[in-house]
Amino acid sequence: MSCSISTETAIDVKEVNGLSKVGISFLKLNINLAHMSVSIPKFSYFLTIAIVLYCNTMVFAQTRTVAIVKDNHTAYLDSLEQQLKKEINNLLIGQYDIAYQSFSGNGDSERIQTDLHTIFDSGEADLVIAIGLQSSALLHQKRNYPIPSIAMMVMKDTSVTKTGINNYTFTSPYQSFEDVAGLFSDMFNITEIGVLGAPEFLLGEEKLHNKETPRLTPLLPSHTKIPDSIQGLLIIPTAFKDTLLVNNFIHQANEMGIPSFSIGDPFFNKGWTASIFEEKLMEPSIRKVALDSRHIFEGTNAAEIPIIKKVTPFQLIINMEGVRQIGKLPEWEYLEQSILINTASSPTSETLTIERALAMGIQEKLSLKKSEVTVDKSLQEIKQAKALLRPEVNASASNVWLSDNLVAASLGQKGEMTFSGSLNFQQVLFSEPLFANLAIKKLLNENLEEKHKQSILDAVVNITQNYVSLLLAKADLDLQNENLNLIKQNLATAKNKERLGASKQSDVNRWLSELNLGHIQLNTAQANYKKALYLLNEGLNQPIATSYDLPESIDIKSVFKFPETLLAPYLEDEFLLETLAGFYLNEMRRDAPELQQLRLTDKVISRRIKSAKREFILPRLVGFASANDIFVLEGLQTNPNFSVPPPPQDLTWNAGIGIEFPILDNRKRKTSIELAQLDLQDLEYSKQEVENTLERNIRSQIQQFNWSYRSHQHAKNAATAASANFVQANESYQQGFISITQLLDAQAAKFNAELLVLQTQYKMILDYVLLERFTGKIQLLESDEDQLDYQNRLQQFLFTSK
Q1: Does pTM surpass 0.85?
Q2: 128: closest CA among 68, 62, 63?
Q3: pLDDT surpassing 60 at residue 51
């Protein structure tokens, strides 16, 4: 006997606020009892009615209303509101019907207060959430909370004592206002800051006016002009709906030549000088508020919810266009660690090759520009040292009037009015200290040039690493996209085979799983590509979001002048690697800027010792001459009782040589020589230490390059085999000879091998660049003549070493 009870029904439940409440279609109930088959329509009818009544009760009895209060209708706050709604909906779907009330204060604190009173007095909302610094601060200041309330953007220094309050909780994701103002002050070395955007709610009015270094002065929207005493403008953009007002203040700041700083809004469309953009700052706070909402709806008092005051680190962004407008650079430590936007434009339609990337980086990298300035300063110091050895010529003229008694007392040598002139000349003929100073200045300049060369080499390595990372990220993105397309094709095949009965539903489910995993991997690859692009642009000092067309790969032989023909036999035989290391060690000892700087320092100290010894036995000789002439002499009085000849009224001159010998120097010379000799001994130890380190680096890097070179050869072989295996496996799967698991293994092996080919290729490039870097020269940067000379030296060394 069997019994079968069956019913089908469709329950249509409306959609509220974009959420599907209940979807019940084709409800089927089957009861089977052995050996009996009976249809029971009445039972089915009553069962359907019961399910509908239950679903209606479930849907409409759980409605909750959330009132959202925000500072203003800005793109930033509107986006946060939408993210928050989405998070709450996703978290509470199926449990509650969420209705939203949205209130905007339009940057007016009184209106925000009115909105809060209206919400509390009406009692229509089940929960109040404040979004924005201004709204959060005003909600945070309340004493009583008739309705459960959450402030989402409370700054750190306003959240100290506000815990355990009935029906109230908050999140504190932002740095304190003091921290931000201190950062702005340190960046531009300013002490008087004007704050635009209701700062009294964020810091406290008394604290605002009494704060010292920097002093914060509130600027109200009613102000038409920034006071002259203000040295910087701090803006809270979420407090303003009137963008013209903000633009006016920004324009004034730029005209006054003072920096402007924005909090909490990552959009640079108003010409600000700098801003902090907290990367993914609000995501944890949004999720925390959504979770707190669920706890409150489930009956938990908001005061019992733990408060998280974790402040997310911010990313400092500097707008170079704004910096150029005010003509004032931030302090170097902040400029170096910041993301720079709106720098010098560069064409993006051309393909960005590694050569172009290196050229852009060397030309625009800030650290290299600073190094160039240091070298230029040393050249000016050489000119100053030379000037001390050149002749000095001075001319002077005077007109003197004397009283009668002075004229009479001069015995006919001076008149009542004398107009005269003189010409003086001086030339250092010999001076050991001045000669030594000039020689040392030249050596120091060479030292700085070697240091600049070292900076260029390091920049090339850094740019190459970033560029190769971008190429690898692009390759991974292409492979993941190709993999996803292949998964889609196999899914379609599996569905067709399942419909025909040639395979099971489990194959379709497995491909559906792989499809979703493929989307995750593709999204990850896209994010990694963007991050690699931003990192490269930062190193090139280009606009961060600039995109480029990239070549498919780098030919190491053509770009980096890799002599594969000469080196391949040595890389394939590990016993010959030590012979190859000898060549690169010779290049390092000759060209490494680290060793060159120590050698030049040795020469500087030796020249000082030589000068100290010479000073005691060699004189200082100076030649000098002067000429004088009286052009006008009036009122001369002679005394007949004295036979004194009148003063000459024509040209007079004198010339001579001065000599100077040191007699006693209280052992200063001897002590300076002894100290310099100790410096030389210490320097010799440093040279040995640096040379040992460089030798270790070169020997290790040769082994590493040998590994990556051979790994690349193996990876290419593996990719060829894996590709052929996948083609065969795919055909076998289509014919039903192998399982889906075996096909997935073959597919994964193919893509992993292809990615490994690129990874080992780019790793080989980086290893070769690092090997050349340790020798002190990267052939890509050298002239054709120097490159040819390098090839000849390598060939000659390898030939003589056999």
Answers
A1: no
A2: 68
A3: no
